[in-house]
Design goal:
The protein has 340 residues and is mainly β. Helices cover 10% and strands 39% of the residues. It has 3 helices and 23 strands. Strand 16, helix 1 and strand 17 form a beta-alpha-beta unit. The longest helix is centred in the last third of the chain and has 14 residues. It starts with a strand and ends in a 7-residue tail after the last strand.
Length: 340
């Protein structure tokens, strides 16, 4: 039996140990998430570790339906109320499939869906590893979460959604729309950290970084290369990304220059991290480097270091980023405590 709840978007603050030279802002969906250590090592492309200590159920992985393998008659639609601004619409009976990699054991799955009603509701059948975990009559006409209890070990699993009762009558036809699936699990409480065995610890949430010199996140997210497969095989749950200039149509920096970052390339990068790499984006806000960075246009990173008499200089850019990202980015990092 599916447990149904109306889809909503909420924000929980990320508790953190604040470093001396940087502030850390983050939002992690509707679940509280505590990070006790945050280590960053990078020089263009790098890696970082988050040491988690919590016992609450948290989102382990978010799978966007539009990134799945779709059957004939199923299309990707634009929907500003959907996660990532897109969803899939079944126009006939069929099954959408994908492979997911769980970083740790999961205990439940929540599928966000809605239906076009026609002499009854569309039926959605959800399977994991080929075994049915739920069959739901999707009577909701707005995005609604259908939850199923299922214990899964960490590692690779197959996920599928099927539309099974397509029909038409006079001027209507049943349709099933699916937005995303979120796997939930409980992480173990972390024991006290001993410096002597730091590199042997197995309870880190680890990640990688995409260099910010390409505004669209490529080549890391480029499905024409093998890079996304390598990233997914490594099961990175978090990918750090930054943009090195403000959006077109804005002026920014101490020199009030015109922005060069297009919102389309920003969307490509963020959606690519989520859909192509199956990871959560961690977005690093400007400034990111005290030198020239960028391709094909180089921007002087020093221009984004705010003077002491105008510490809020970059806030309009921050607000524009958050507005453009919507719910797609839930983790943010700021490098200037004065701006936090």
């Amino acid at each position: 039996m599916a447990v149904k709840s109306t889809k909503h978007r909420s924000t929980a603050k990320l508790a953190q140990k604040k470093p001396t030279n940087s502030g850390f802002l983050a939002r992690f969906g509707s679940q509280k998430f505590m990070a006790l250590a945050f280590v960053v090592v990078f020089a263009g492309i790098g890696s970082y570790l988050l040491l988690a200590s919590h016992a609450a159920t948290i989102p382990l992985i978010n799978t966007e339906a539009e990134a799945m393998t779709l059957p004939s008659g199923t299309t990707i639609i634009a929907d500003t109320t959907a996660s990532g601004g897109q969803a899939i619409q079944f126009g006939a009976n069929g099954t959408a499939t994908t492979t997911i990699n769980l970083p740790s054991p999961a205990d439940s799955l929540a599928v966000t869906a809605r239906g076009v009603q026609c002499k009854g509701s569309p039926t959605m059948v959800t399977k994991l590893d080929g075994v049915q975990v739920g069959s739901s009559n999707v009577s909701a006409t707005s995005w609604t979460s259908y939850s199923y209890t299922k214990a899964l070990a960490s590692g690779s699993h197959t996920l599928s959604f099927s539309f099974t009762n397509y029909s038409t009558w006079k001027n209507c036809g049943k349709k099933l729309l699916v937005d995303k699936a979120v796997f939930m699990g409980t992480a173990p409480v972390t024991p006290p950290l001993a410096a002597s065995d730091l590199m042997n610890r197995k309870d880190f949430i680890y990640g990688s970084e995409i260099g910010a010199w390409r505004q669209d996140g490529k080549p890391a997210i480029d499905l024409t290369t093998n890079i996304p497969n390598l990233v997914k095989a490594a099961q990175f749950p978090i990918i750090r990304f930054a943009m090195y200039d403000c959006f077109e149509g804005m002026t920014c920096g101490t020199d009030n220059h015109a922005g060069t970052q297009t919102k389309a390339k920003f969307d490509t990068a963020i959606d690519g991290i989520r859909n192509n790499l199956n990871a959560e984006p961690l977005f690093k806000l400007l400034p990111i480097a005290p030198d020239l960075i960028g391709y094909p246009t180089e921007i002087d990173g020093n221009k984004f270091c705010p003077p002491t008499n105008n510490l809020a200089m970059n806030l309009p850019l921050y607000k524009a980023v958050v507005d453009q990202a919507g719910s797609r980015i839930r983790l943010y990092e700021s490098t200037n405590e004065g701006e936090v």
